[in-house]
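Need tokens for this chain, all 291 residues.
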Amino acid sequence: MSRAEAAGDTLHNQHQYAASRRGTATALRAIDEAWGGGYYTVDPQAETDPEAADAAFEGDELVIDVQTHYIARHRAHAPGVEGIMWFIRSVAPDRWEGLDPAIHLDLGNYLRHIFLESETAAAVLTCTPGDDNHSILTNPEVAATRELIDRLAGTGRLIKSLEEAGIGPGGNVYAELGSTWYVLSRRPREAAHVLGKLLNAVGEDNVVWGSDSIWYGSPQPLIDAFRAFQIPEELRQRHGYPELTPRIKEKILGLNAARVYGIDPDLTRSRVTADDLSWVKAAFDEYIDTQ
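Here are the structure tokens for all 291 residues:
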């Protein structure tokens, strides 16, 4: 084997490890240590043992993602895509160098990341505002760009506005995590404050899961990180934040969205269990035929 081939194999193995649950475990343990501990509970063996990694992140919650995207191939150079690419690169510039929307953000990758590489059971597909010449898809009614920017701006403008409007937990306001969790998962103390404030402000029944995938690849690492996350007791006592119990996580990951969108959780679980995912290939083939 040549030196170039050996280097290629090493790079491939590194990528495979980083994309696996072992890589997720290593990253979360490093983040937890850097922030003083108490945020992510992950077995040390999960860094090297695939079975331990699966056990560390296992869960049977119904996952419903209410914020997902892809870019149609024939729209890869539409004016609206430029803004999306700027947003993605500003969030994680090192990770996305060389990202080509026509190759990496198309329907094929959407299907792979959302339904093959994660436990997402149902997803809401959204797009950017604008007419057909500017949108990444043909749904100009959804102001996705504005929502993305609003979420990254923080939750303070949100909490205050709810208080001023007299809207408390259980009101007709829902907090969707979207890019918020991706951005804050590597800053767990901030993540604890954001989740704690949202749960206190809108209630555990009004926080819904979103990933903004496929802007960040497969949402599975985000799901696993959320499963392992906890608001430390010290912050709970000081600020009155709730503990992230399994039931609250189950609500956020899917049950709350199931109620809002009229989805039967038990029926969806049974369908997912019996799904051989052959429809993914059929959907991709039909998409290719239209290009």
